[in-house]
Amino acid sequence: MSAASSKRDPREKSDKLQFVVALGRHVLRKRRRTLAGPRQTDVCRTFGIACLAVFIPLFIGATANAEDGYRLWLRYDPLPRRMIDVYRARVTSVVVTGGSATLSAIRAELVNGCTGLFGSSIPVAAVLRDRAVIAGTPKSSRLIAGLRWERQLEELGPEGFCIRSTRIGNSSVIVIASRGEAGALYGTFHFLRLIQTLQPIDTLDVSEKPRLALRIIDHWDNLDGTIERGYAGRSLWNWSALPGSPDPRLRDYARAEASIGINGCVLNNVNADSRFLNSEYLRKVASIAEVFRAYGVRVYLSPRFSAPMDLDGLNTADPFDPRVASWWRKKADEIYKLIPDFGGFLVKANSEGQPGPRTYNRTHVDGANMMAAALAPHNGVVIWRAFVYDMKPGYDRAGAAYENLQPFDGKFASNALLQVKNGPVDFQPREPFHPLFGAMPKTNLMPEFQITQEYLGFSNHLVFLAQMWREVLDSETYAKGPGSTVARVVDGSLNGERLTGMAGVANTGSDRNWTGHDFAQANWYAFGRLAWNPDLASERIAGEWIRMTLTNDTKAVAAITRLMLDSYQSLVDYMTPLGLHHIMWGGHHYGPAPWWDTEQRADWNPTYYHRADEIGLGFDRTRTGSNTVSQYHAGARDRLANLATCPESLLLWFHHVRWDYRMHSGRPMWDELALRYQRGVDWVRATRKQWQALAGAIDSERHQRVANKLAVQERDAVWWRDACLLYFQTFSKQPLPAGVERPERTLAEYKAKSLEW
Ligand code: GCW
Question: Taking 80 as the threshold, does the pLDDT of residue 654 lie above it?
Fold first, then answer.
């Protein structure tokens, strides 16, 4: 990636630079010999400069901390020799005309990508050549306009693209075309992915368009550079250096997002600071937007609902007060003057202490629609979060969002979306799908997934989250009978939703490898791929990521794919098996603390969620308990509410189950619980061995880093198993079944101090 942000020895850099400059001169001399006349000399000069621009970062980048993870899945290292020959037979030059920032990014990506992957230079050509790759739009490229593909491109939209092998005159070429420059950029990354993953490119006929309109990463970044629930360093936005000199890493970030189809980025924490909306910060935000624009990434902000009071001294933020509504309209005007393609607002209101319309006895819809009205003239959207739960004694938090928001179905403005977490509580390792997905057919619903691993071992545990998200997307809501999956609600096909989207809470930060754990990059990648196409199989996503990021060795790819696919269930096994949830240590949420009962709010305490007693374990959400299972449609509800048909993976979520209840295995629930914990630990141990066996297939730096993390994961899995079983045993009063190891410490020791990360 960008040379400027690499750490390296300056002497090494100047050696490389000299080499690159020499190479550039050589190329210029050679080209001059083949082209004559004054005009061609210009072409030669431009060509030489283009070569330098392309090669300098490539060469310098290749020397520095080669395997520090910075290059993510966009490594472009040379392919195996025999494959290079195959691809070189199809690709000998790149033709991208036009000077916009996006077209320049496309040109650089194609040249860098092909040159890197083929291990020899692929030139930029100004004119048609045989075996050229041509990319752009009918507007930017005469060659593409001449193909008369307007109708197909129209259908694919400005972000969709087609990639075709075709002939223009006597030349066989590959064309990457879109109606919009962003689409051509996505097509470029798609084309390079095909090569990176060793797919054939001889007779290409690919047409793709994103299934969801808004594919957004939510950053919980604070003004002081910290990140709420961030485990990979500090915020990437260096506010003090803005607007003057944006960090070159911002460009690399936007490029990475574009490579997986992300088109929006909320820059600040939903626990918002009003200052993000003052004119000083808006200028800083505009400078980030400027960098992101080339890569089709729009910026969004999280406004604090009380901003009119905090910034301009209004005495209320009541959405029905005309002064307040006018304040938001003016603020929107100010923002769009600075950032014409600003995306909109993401709002956390009346949740966990944030102000909101209910502070003024207004409803969520009143608040959302006021902001929507301010943004509408600029084509902006408001994304309202459904993560609201009141402080009410004796209620079930899992039912709160539904109670608060479902009654407003059909009432939100057309440029408003409701952002709903995947499950009804809070990003637990496993939750059932959120009942709102089946219950608001007249509202633009947008799921929120958490890429950062707040409750899933931070950036220490290897867990591939595509599995978890697939489970949610594939869940049957039964809203319109069988086949009414969450994915079909989300992509708008079930209810004819006009505005669709998906949000992921970022796991990136200033760490050199972006995400802390090298495998956590896969979750960022997977989120983007699923936002592009919510039907993609996790196995396919894992395979792509491994081949692009780690290795193309078939055996290693198979082994790592298996390991990634099994990782999710295994983490659930050693943390929260059988539907347990929210039993993490208070505050930081790392490690177990099922005994925790000291938070002032009952629903922040693990004891509230597991309800262990002499009789059994689990939260009764059926008619004999909170009955929030009734928020699901009959098809789902009946299955979940019945102890005999409820999937065991969610048993303790919906039922208070006797310790001696017979599970499908024939074992009593207590034994099954203990064996699941053990199974999770066994998986981590087996994975460590397998990872050792992969030593030759992956560079030693990344291999070692992952091995170190796996050691921590094993320590933690053992800790989880022991702490939870010792604690639950005080209720079950049963011995550990055969096959479960004796705990390493006493319960008192586990209670005394939390796990360290
Ligand atoms: O998961 C919880 C987190 C909070 C977070 C909140 C939310 C941003 O513990 O840190 O706040 O959810 O999603 O709003």
Answer: yes
